[in-house]
Every structure is written in structure tokens, then in C-alpha cells.
Design a protein that fits this description.
This is SnoaL-like aldol condensation-catalyzing enzyme. By secondary structure, the protein is an alpha+beta fold. The protein has five helices and ten strands. The chain starts with a helix and ends in a 14-residue tail after the last strand.
């Protein structure tokens, strides 16, 4: 069984209560980066047992694989409706580490797109590394360093589909959103890119920064076509103060 399939089954088990997929986790080594869950398999079990019976719904819309990593994009009802990216690391066919980023479901956005709709399967497997390099440069240039004059080198005008629930399509939609944020005194700053993972024409970046003055984790999924970014999904999650962490592994 592919690692990708193992992850999809494990996530679905949150809804169904199936116990077999728990066997995909290494019971002796499970490093947890969700700061609301205690470390190890016991922490994962405790989180599941806290869910009201029958309340969880899990629909994994996208699943991609990059080496020993699998990353997924999932529509959850898990203590309320949320959209989440999950990242799992495998060793010898078993899951040994997990990261995620969850945002309360909202939208559709000004262009009518939800946080999860759009293409779900990858293409251009031979371009994975080139696409990862392109996206890393985009995030570094535009989101970390604010070199907005380079934006049109990465995005082709209004040929850009946006799934952020607050922003419309195209560079025009992005411009309007940034203007509104500036008028409200809301700042968004990316400081560090922690991971860049990809499968074909889909690339996920995991970054750290601040949104509206709060320590924040940004997960951004991009779809690339002909050397340009043409579609974007994301989740933004505030990182709690360290005294409220349930494990000491950190968000990243």
C-alpha cells in the first residue's frame, strides 16, 4: 500500500473509528507538532477520545507524496468545521511525525471559490523540482521580502484562481485585499520558510510569521502551469503561547 493511501485511511478513521489504520503509526516513535495534542500515539488517542461520539467528518480532497512525506488537504468537522493541511513523515513504511495547520471554514470568497474546490490530482511529475524551486522563490521574493515588482514574473495577471476565503481571483483581487488590510492596519509578514514539498504541479510551503500582530503558521498550496502560479489555497493558524503547548516539539 502506498504511503499516500495509508494517510487517507488514517484520517478517515477519525470519522469512522476504524482501528486498523492506527497500525500505520510507529507506536514507539510518533512526534507530534499539533500543539493541542500531547506527544506520541497516546496523545493522538486522547485527542480522538475527546471528540463527541459521531461528530467527526473527514473528507480528504487532495493527497500528495514527496519522498518520505505525504501532505493532504482535508475538509474536517473536528470540534467544528475546519479546513486542514496535514503533513506526515514516514520511516520504513510507518508514520513517525505529524504536522498540521487548521483554519475555521469560511467562504466562498469574492470570486465564489471555496477553500477546497478546484483540481485535485497532480500532473507534470517530471517538473516537481523545478516547480518547488519556482514556488520557493515566489514565497521568498514576495511574501518574505516584499519585492512586489517581481510579482508579474510569477503570476500571469488575472489568470490566477484564489481560494483564500477573503481574496478574489487575479492580481486585481490580491491588490484589493492588500489595500483593504492596509486601510484596517492589518499586517501580514512571512519571516521563515520551513518546508517546500511538491508532487508534479502542486507545491506546498510551510512558513512562519505574523498576521495582525500574532505569531502565525502559514500553509500555502500552489498549482503551477507553464512556469507560472495559476491557483492558490491556504490555511492560516495562530500559534499559541508556549505555556499552552501540549507537547514540546514546536509547530515546525
Amino acid at each position: 500500500m502506498k504511503n499516500k493511501q495509508k494517510v487517507v485511511e488514517l484520517l478517515k478513521a477519525i470519522e469512522t473509528g476504524a482501528t486498523e489504520p492506527i497500525g500505520y503509526i510507529n507506536p514507539n516513535k510518533y512526534i507530534q507538532h499539533n500543539l493541542g495534542a500531547a506527544d506520541g500515539l497516546a496523545g493522538f488517542g486522547a485527542l480522538l477520545s475527546a471528540l463527541p461520539a459521531g461528530s467527526a467528518k473527514v473528507n480528504t480532497v487532495r493527497a500528495f507524496e514527496d519522498g518520505n512525506y505525504v501532505f493532504t488537504h482535508t475538509d474536517y468537522n473536528f470540534f467544528g468545521p475546519k479546513i486542514g493541511f496535514d503533513l506526515f513523515r514516514f520511516e520504513d513504511g510507518k508514520i513517525v511525525e505529524h504536522w498540521d495547520n487548521l483554519q475555521e471554514t469560511s467562504g466562498p470568497n469574492p470570486s465564489g471559490h471555496t477553500m477546497t474546490d478546484g483540481p485535485a490530482t497532480s500532473a507534470d511529475a517530471d517538473k516537481t523540482e523545478a516547480n518547488k524551486a519556482l514556488v520557493q522563490s515566489f514565497v521568498d521574493d514576495i511574501l518574505v521580502n516584499g519585492r512586489m515588482e517581481k510579482l508579474t514574473g510569477y503570476i500571469d495577471g488575472d489568470n490566477y484562481i484564489q481560494h483564500n476565503p477573503q481574496i478574489g481571483d487575479g492580481l486585481s483581487g490580491l491588490g484589493k485585499a492588500l489595500e483593504y488590510m492596509a486601510s484596517q492596519g492589518i499586517s501580514m509578514k512571512y519571516d521563515t520558510i520551513h518546508k517546500v514539498l511538491g508532487e508534479g504541479n502542486f507545491v506546498l510551503t510551510i512558513s512562519e510569521g505574523a498576521f495582525a500582530g500574532k505569531h502565525t503558521s502559514f500553509y500555502d498550496l500552489f498549482r503551477i502551469e507553464n512556469g507560472k502560479i495559476v491557483e492558490h489555497w491556504d490555511t492560516i493558524e495562530e500559534i499559541p503561547a508556549k505555556e499552552n503547548w501540549q507537547n514540546n516539539n514546536g509547530k515546525f
